[in-house]
Design brief:
This protein has 5 helices and 7 strands. The chain is of the alpha/beta class. The chain has 2 domains: about 35 residues; about 130 residues, 3-Layer(aba) Sandwich (Glutaredoxin), CATH 3.40.30. Strands 2-1-5-4-3-6-7 form a 7-stranded mixed beta sheet. The longest helix has 27 residues. The radius of gyration is 21 Å and the shape is globular. The N and C termini lie far apart (about 60 Å).
């Protein structure tokens, strides 16, 4: 029996609205998951040169937002180096973007003492972090395919075995 009282009708409307909102949310997540274009960004590298996301098209790229004061960032960096070294000759690139609050001298010291073999950028204004989705938490890492689409976003340290599998799949694609 249907409850036609004012309270019963309100409950039914609320349930219908919640169901509709859930359906729209699910559609929205499915439609854009892994298909967002990487933003047009210009990375200012430690040596003063610049690289853009357009320069990275045709390569599978890992864009890692990190900080020298982030314990997890420091912990994962050897794995990021190993990943880069494993795939660099196959069309893989890495850009490590230091957050705006990270002193440039600390970033330079970290990159030199750990001999980071990939591009290291400074985001002095926070503009790059804003462009990539208001990145606030570190590490936040994006995997970008050869066409410039964001395939995956990791907040925290990735599962590197799964990441390597995904990189290999993306490198195999035309």
């Amino acid at each position: 029996m249907t409850d036609l009282s004012p309270d019963g009708l309100r409950r039914r409307r609320s349930l219908k609205a919640a169901a509709a909102l859930g359906a729209v949310s699910a559609l929205g997540l499915g439609a854009c998951a892994g298909r967002d274009r990487a933003p047009d960004s210009t990375f200012v590298l430690l040596d003063g040169s610049k690289a853009t996301t357009a320069d990275l098209k045709g390569k599978v790229t890992l864009v890692n937002f990190w900080a020298t004061t982030c314990v997890t960032c420091v912990k994962e960096m050897p794995s990021i180096v190993a990943t880069y070294q494993k795939y660099q000759d196959k069309g893989f690139e890495t850009v490590a973007v230091a957050m705006e609050y990270d002193p440039p001298s600390w970033v330079l010291n970290f990159a030199q003492t750990r001999q980071l073999p990939f591009k290291v950028a400074l985001d002095n204004t926070g503009e790059i972090a804003r462009q990539w989705g208001e990145v606030k938490l570190t590490p936040t890492t994006y995997l970008v395919d050869k066409q410039g689409h964001i395939v995956k976003r990791f907040v925290g340290e990735p599962d590197f075995a799964a990441l390597h599998k995904q990189i290999e799949e993306l490198l195999a694609q035309a």
